[in-house]
Specification:
The structure is a single chain. This protein is of the alpha/beta class. Helices cover 38% and strands 12% of the residues. It has 26 helices and 22 strands. Helix 20 crosses helix 24 (754-764).
Length: 810
């Protein structure tokens, strides 16, 4: 027991040595001013939460001055104000290019207040001036109808991170730091946020940061002890356990702990100086000596009371330092009239008369503490990435065209072709260092390995002899098996003005459903803010899809991301399902050039027939939907049936069904329609890509049966088309049937195969008589033959494996 106590004491002593107990980093004048600036930030934060009148308390506070509905979060706010003022000092001392990511979700009062105090808010929103009238507007707009939200949002200058759903701050910070060698991203992490899966995994991102070509991330773990009504895990473990955990993740933690402002200011100043100097020394050594050894980057653990400087007790209950300060620590309404005086006393404790002049402007000696121009964290151009965005140098995708001499004559792996195109994109933009490919260990699996002819996987941990394509610098980040990190890194990369794509297995992109949602919401709000510049689109390539899971089976079969995506605003989302490699090239060239969208592209990696020449593919993809005349026979007459398809595998099966129908029922008039752009099916009043009613009826007719083969869940097509005139729509797609089986049997199990499709047409189209009955029976026989064959031979029948398109005339 004595030895264990000694080991515990030694570990804690070593850790606290690195906590820097220096008390003389700041002069008395600096200490006084910084504490005053912190008070000003706290005052402005409380004012935003509570007031919409009387911003400087020039008259006694009354209930009429308080918002009718007070909604916000105070607990994290004073700690974030404390951090912000200290980062401002470091920026000025070291002339840093730095911005701030606020992980603790609803710390909006802190960041809005600091951006206002530094002057950026008034530059972006001139009506919110730096005087008493502007202060009143600042207070009123916060968490108020017609104003701004209670958390850090796109409306907040200096932010790339929505403070709603927790967990993404650190991965966003690393995404911002990639290829930004002069940038330091200060990432404040709440101890509640640190409990999320995304954040817990993001600690490992330091294994992917190159000290030569990338910037740095300075995590600041804010331990204030509580969530909404529960303690936080990291605040309740022993000091040495937390220290060992962070060191085990590859960090050098420096601890700043306490509640006495003067001591905390001195300790925080010394600690930030140490962290910045560590970063600069690591980078200098790496860049001067070409030393790619992974540094043990510094980070800071700030342990301060929740709701610091707020009400200590209210109605006999402790508030400061408890979970009760998490949201609104003091109810001020008609049911609590005596709390008006408590609020007034709280706000007066900051002594606003010493901080703001008679006109309501922050006094000059305090305003001088903030950095100037673009060095202000609210004005840093990286946080408005469109300011820094440059177009990619793009190869000519025609150079990668598949030579299609006739429809279906050859088979090609679509994503393999795309890989060579992406290789050339990476090669052409190596000098700019503004393009990256992200994915969870699936780049090779999805047949994009051609990119490794010109670049490597970025990897800054140890390497062994059998490793492949690993290097400290690279354009590919796919060595971490975490969809969350890949998504977060890519979002941070795009939001700071670069380009990229995320390739994933289709089923497992669902892991980041909510991350996509938050990014789509971010873009939606940004589109309403003229000062927010457009950024490169978030591009998803979903391969290894539902119809190609021969050896994985049911667990890997889920096309539902499409259903999730189309719920978002029509001016944000785009969904493409190219039928072959030439269409895929045309679509992806468009996606990489686009701005402010989320583009979802679904493409297969198994060899499938190729249908269109490149010239045909460009026209078809530009239109997004169209009649394939070479497969149709209704020219000069009305069709008896419309056969529509969307996705590579449904296209194959629809065309195979058409071939059978044209052979056995040559008098049947069939129109074949292929859909590349899924959003074309929506009315033009609902989506900018949508077809007008006239266009839709011209293609799909007003009254003929439509047999539609779709890549995903059938009801998605019904959702998109429910307002259309023609409701004779019969969609075949994935209906949650699957296992490890042959490719064709997957289609059979879900009724998407050619035999079921032919039966469907026979059942729908009237007057087919005896020919129709015999054909339907023949198709049923084929289904039985198929089942017996695969059970005996373990592969699909030769007529399936060797099928070629025929119009039935031969």
């Amino acid at each position: 027991m004595q030895i264990q106590d000694l080991l515990h004491e030694t570990s804690e002593d070593l850790s606290r040595e690195e906590s820097l107990k220096s008390t003389d980093t700041l002069t008395s004048g600096q200490l006084r001013k910084m504490n005053a600036y912190w008070r000003a930030a706290n005052y402005v934060s409380v004012g935003q939460i509570y007031l919409y009148e009387n911003p400087l308390l020039k008259e006694p506070l009354t209930l009429a001055h308080v918002k009718p509905l007070v909604v916000s979060h105070w607990g994290t706010t004073p700690g974030q104000n404390f951090i912000y003022v200290h980062l401002n000092r470091a920026i000025k001392k070291y002339d840093l290019d730095m911005f701030y990511i606020a992980g603790p979700g609803h710390g909006g009062p802190a960041i809005v207040g600091n951006v206002y105090l530094e002057g950026t808010w008034s530059e972006v929103y001139p009506n919110v001036s730096q005087d008493e009238a502007g202060l009143k507007l600042l207070f009123k707009q916060f968490s108020f109808p017609g104003g701004i939200s209670s958390h850090v949002a796109p409306t907040t200058p200096g932010s790339i991170h929505e403070g709603g759903e927790l967990g993404y701050s650190l991965s966003h910070a690393f995404g911002a730091a990639f290829d930004n060698p002069g940038l330091i991203v200060a990432c404040v992490i709440g101890d509640g946020e640190a409990e999320t899966g995304s954040l817990a995994t993001a600690w490992q991102s330091n294994k992917f940061l190159d000290p030569i070509t990338d910037g740095a991330v300075l995590p600041i773990l804010h331990l204030n002890g509580y969530k909404i009504s529960n303690p936080t895990v990291l605040s309740r473990i022993e000091h040495d356990e937390l220290d060992q955990f962070l060191r085990g993740c590859g960090w050098t933690p420096y601890f700043v702990e306490g509640d006495e402002p003067e001591k905390m200011h001195q300790l925080m100043a010394a600690t930030i100086d140490k962290a910045v100097e560590d970063i600069q020394q690591f980078q200098k050594n790496a860049r001067s000596n070409n030393d790619v050894t992974r540094p043990r980057w510094p980070m800071i653990v700030l342990k301060s009371p929740k709701g610091w400087t707020g009400p200590k007790f209210v109605d006999g209950l402790q508030i400061e330092g408890t979970f009760r300060s998490h949201q609104v620590p003091l109810l001020v309404d008609g049911a609590h009239p005596d709390h008006v005086k408590l609020l007034e006393n709280w706000m007066k404790s900051y002594k606003a008369e010493e901080l703001f002049d008679e006109n309501g402007r922050l006094i000059a000696e305090l305003a001088e503490l903030a950095p100037k121009g673009d060095r202000r964290m609210g004005a840093n151009p990286h946080a408005n990435g469109g300011l820094l965005l440059h177009d990619l140098r793009m190869p000519d995708f025609h150079d990668h065209a598949v030579n299609v001499v006739s429809p279906g004559a050859i088979q090609v792996e679509d994503t393999l072709v795309l890989g060579s195109f992406l290789r050339d994109v990476a090669r052409l933009n190596q000098d700019k260092r503004n393009f990256r490919i992200f994915g969870p260990d699936e780049t090779v699996s999805n047949l994009l390995q051609a990119v490794f002819e010109v670049t490597n996987r970025q990897w800054d941990a140890r390497e062994f002899g059998n490793d492949e394509f690993l290097a400290p610098q690279g354009r590919v980040l796919d060595s971490m098996l975490s969809e969350n990190q890949c998504e977060g890194w890519l979002e941070g990369y795009l939001l700071t003005g670069r380009h990229g794509l995320f390739n994933s297995y289709e089923a497992f992109i669902r892991i980041i459903d909510s991350m996509f949602s938050q990014h789509a919401k971010w873009l939606k709000v940004c589109n309403e803010l003229p000062w927010r510049r457009e950024i490169s689109s978030l591009n998803y390539l979903l391969a290894s899809h539902v119809w190609q899971q021969d050896h994985n089976g049911f667990t890997h079969q889920d096309p539902g991301f499409l259903d999730h995506v189309i719920n978002k605003k029509a001016d944000i989302v785009r969904c493409y399902l190219p039928a072959d490699a030439n269409c895929l090239l045309s679509v992806f060239d468009h996606c990489l050039r686009s701005r402010n969208y989320v583009n979802v592209v679904v493409a297969g990696k198994h060899a499938l027939p190729q249908w269109l020449t490149m010239d045909e593919a460009v026209v078809h993809c530009t239109e997004g939907v169209g009649i394939w005349q070479w497969a149709s026979n209704d020219q000069g007459s009305e069709p008896d049936v419309v056969m529509a398809c969307c996705g590579d595998t449904p296209t194959l099966e629809i065309l195979a069904a058409v071939s059978i129908l044209r052979q056995h029922l040559p008098e049947l008039k069939i129109r074949v329609i292929n859909v590349v752009d899924l959003m074309k099916l929506q009315p033009s009043t609902e989506h900018p890509h949508g077809l007008t009613e006239l266009e839709y009826d011209s293609l799909f007719t007003k009254d003929k049966h439509i047999v539609f083969g779709f890549h995903g869940y059938p009801w998605l097509i019904h959702r998109l088309t429910y307002r259309r005139t023609n409701h004779k729509l019969h969609v075949r797609g994935y209906k949650e049937e699957g296992t490890i089986t042959t490719p064709f049997d997957m289609r059979v199990q879900n009724d998407l195969d050619r035999f079921h499709l032919v039966q469907d047409v026979v059942d729908r189209v009237p007057n087919l008589g005896s020919k129709g009955a015999y054909l339907k029976q023949n198709m049923q026989d084929k289904l039985i033959e198929h089942k017996h064959y695969i059970n005996a031979h373990g592969q699909d029948m030769p007529e399936i494996r060797n099928w070629k398109w025929s119009d039935g005339s031969g």
